[in-house]
Sequence to fold (118 residues):
Amino acid sequence: MKFNRKCKYCTKPFETNSSIKDYCCPEHQRKANNNKQNEKRHKLNILNKPLMETYKIYDKLLGIKSLVRFSKEYLRGKGADLSFYTKTVHIEGKYLNGIFDILLFNDNDYLTLKRIKK
Fold:
């Protein structure tokens, strides 16, 4: 049985034996899939870029120390986005946010950064 379809990439009509085929040729299917993946990567980069920049700021401020305390105003001035975190852990009855290997202790106008062992 033949089916008349319209290519989702180039919008040209084509004839196929499959009722589920969406593209007129493998090249158009590959290009469409690449475009879809590129869009996903772009959306992830929108989040990952400020997250990684914030992590680099925290990492640099910690240096070789395992614990440091800074005002939130100072951290914002350095370019840190205080709304980003990658995990939440439960320690001593409290829930703490963290970015990768750095825990964030929120204390009103201050933030204490503590590097946890990997």
In short: The mean pLDDT is 93.
